[in-house]
Amino acid sequence: MKFMMTFHWAPDTEQRAEAIARFQRTGGLPPDGVRLVGRWTRADLSSGFDLLETDDMKKLTEFAYQWSDLMELEITPVLDDAELGEVLGRVAK
Predict the structure, then answer these.
(1) What is the chain's Cα-based Rg?
(2) Backbone region of residue 7 per phi and psi (left: phi > 0; alpha: psi in -120 to 50; beta: other values)
(3) Could you name the domain of life of the organism this protein comes from (predicted)?
(4) In the predicted model, what is the mean pLDDT of residues 60-66?
(5) CA 84, CA 88: separation in Å to the nearest integer?
(6) Does the domain at residues 2-91 carry the CATH identifier 3.30.390?
(7) Residue 3's beta-bridge partner residues?
(8) Which residues pair with 7 in a beta bridge?
(9) Whole-prediction pTM value?
(10) pLDDT for 28-39, tens place per residue?
């Protein structure tokens, strides 16, 4: 399954500095079992989102835990257009 994890940073310079340092140390990569499809960050650095793929909710939760002390996170299951088209082909009349 694919998930969009949206992140928001508070305008706290110490917290932001720690998040940047952690990102530089770790590359912001999720644990094994979660594939990072892509990451996009707003130009003003206030927020962004990761597109992740996994069938292991425990690993997804582990990744969220690694960052939830520094930013607000929201995780939403998502479908790409091809997957949505399959669903609509079956149910839309």
Answers:
(1) 15
(2) beta
(3) Bacteria
(4) 97
(5) 6
(6) no
(7) 52, 77
(8) 48, 73
(9) 0.87
(10) 999 999 999 999
Q: Could you tell me the residue ranges of all domains in the chain?
A: 2-91
Three-state secondary structure string covering the chain:
CEEEEEEECCCCHHHHHHHHHHHHHHCCCCCCCCEEEEEEECCCCCEEEEEEECCCHHHHHHHHHHHCCCCEEEEEEECCHHHHHHHHHHHCC
Is the confidence at residue 77, as pLDDT, over 90? yes
Per the structure block, which two tokens stand in for 1? 């399954």
User: What residue type is assigned to position 15 of the chain?
Assistant: Q
The pairing of strands 35-41 and 72-78 is unpaired
Give the model's pLDDT for residue 13.
Answer: 82
Q: How far apart are the C-alpha atoms of 19 and 25, rounded to whole Å?
A: 10
Neighbours of 5 (CB within 10 A): 21
Provide the residue count of the chain.
93
Q: Is the pLDDT of residue 1 over 80?
A: yes
